[in-house]
Amino acid sequence: GGTHIWCVAKPGGDTATLMSALNYACGEGGADCSAIQPGGSCFQPNTVDAHASYAFNSYYQKHGRNYWNCYFDGNALVTVSDPS
């Protein structure tokens, strides 16, 4: 139960900045990014936006779903609609 909230990449974000945030989330951020590697279950669509949203959300869920865990230099936002 309860409201499900996801953290996703902000639409129209700068690709280079998103890549940087994605690398941070998957690296020192500790997000589980195995599903967005080639061959992974969430690799398609193979877009920076889709992969960043996946990584941001993984990071956000893992770190306790605080609004400050969904910032990524202003490249992310929280949503109540399921992005999957």
From TrEMBL:
Question: Which GO cellular component does the record give, naming just one?
Answer: plasma membrane
Please give the superkingdom of this protein's source.
Eukaryota
Please state every residue range assigned to the domain named X8: 5-84
Glycoprotein in keyword set: yes
Q: How does it sit in the membrane?
A: Lipid-anchor; GPI-anchor
Pfam families (alphabetical): X8
Q: Which UniProt keywords apply?
A: Cell membrane, Disulfide bond, Glycoprotein, GPI-anchor, Lipoprotein, Membrane, Signal
Query: Native species of this protein?
Result: Selaginella moellendorffii (Spikemoss)
Q: Where in the cell is it found?
A: Cell membrane
Provide the protein name.
X8 domain-containing protein
Q: What's the chief localization of this chain?
A: membrane
The record's SMART domains line, in alphabetical order, gives: X8 (SM00768)
